[in-house]
Structure formats: C-alpha cells, structure tokens
Amino acid sequence: MQLERTNDKQDTEQSGEQSTTSTDDRFTILSNSRRRHAIKYLASSDEPAVRLRDMAEQIAAWENDLSVYEVNYKQRKRVYTSLYQTHLPRMNRVDIVEYDQSSGMIWPTDGVTELYPYLEPKSPPVFDWHQVGIVVSGLCFFLVTVAFLELIPDGGWDGYGIAFLISMLFLTVTAGQYLDS
C-alpha cells in the first residue's frame, strides 16, 4: 500500500513556484554523514517514496561496511532512531524531503536534487592548467622580448603577427581550462 502525500508543499509544486534551499541550509544538511547517506539513498531509489525502515537498514549497512542482510537489530535501531527523531524532521523543515512521521514514508523533493552534486567528489582535471599557463606565459614573454630586441630577421613576424600568436595561445589555454572543468 502506498500512501499519498497531502500537504501545502505539493500545492506549491503544482502552482509552478520553485522551492530553493538556502546555502546555509544545504551545508547544514550536508554537514552530517547520516544525512548525506539519506540523500544518497533517495538518489539511488527508483520509487517515488521510500520507507524509513528500508532507509535505516541500508544506512546502517553503509556505516558498518556490511551488506543489508548482515545488519543486526541494534545497528538498524540506532540509525532508525536518529533518522526518525532528528535528521528527517530537520530535512523536512528545509524542504529537502517530505516526511510523514506517522507512516514512516519519505518523499524526495526538488530540494534534494540540488544536493546531489555535493555528494560525488569531482574528478581531477586532465591537465595541471597552472603549469600550462606558466609555460604559455613564459613563451609569450620570450616572443615579446625577441620582438622588442628586433631579433626577428627581415621578412619574419611583425608585431601584429606576434600579438595574434600570443592571443591564440591564451585563447587555447582558456578554452582548454573551460572544457576540462
């Protein structure tokens, strides 16, 4: 049996208003590993709503490096109690979830999806762009020095050609940094 949520938040969603979570609320929610696990569990669920018992069981497994089947009553109860009394009500207050304490059902809101990017670490960049920038700056300094000292033979690059080359080098580095981020 699936319960239907009936509250003012649903009416807000239907009216087209967006609920946004403040930056302070986001970081407060993310400051606790158990709440991060709850968000991770909601992100991995295919169901529109999840049961508190199932969430507590999975989080207990993650916290104890066990499978769900190996979690004992004490481990599950400890997680269940803290979710029930503290974490889910707090997440409900800042519109991360909709939580019906009497039924033990949890519905993710649009606010929870705002937190997904914070859960996964960013992959390291392909290049160390600081080093690339230093090399390109050194090359540009060399080219400007050669042009200033007029060491380029006749028929070689003029000032406009060198300026164009320097501009293209910096454009290439900037585009590479942008595409790598």
From TrEMBL:
Q: Where is the composition biased (Basic and acidic residues)?
A: 1-12
Residues annotated as domain DUF7344: 27-106
Membrane-spanning residues: 132-153, 159-179
Which regions are flagged for Low complexity bias?
Answer: 13-22
* Chain positions covered by the region annotation Disordered: 1-28
Look up keyword Chaperone and say if it applies. no
Source organism, top-level taxon: Archaea
- Per its record, how is this protein called by name? DUF7344 domain-containing protein
Record keywords: Membrane, Plasmid, Transmembrane, Transmembrane helix
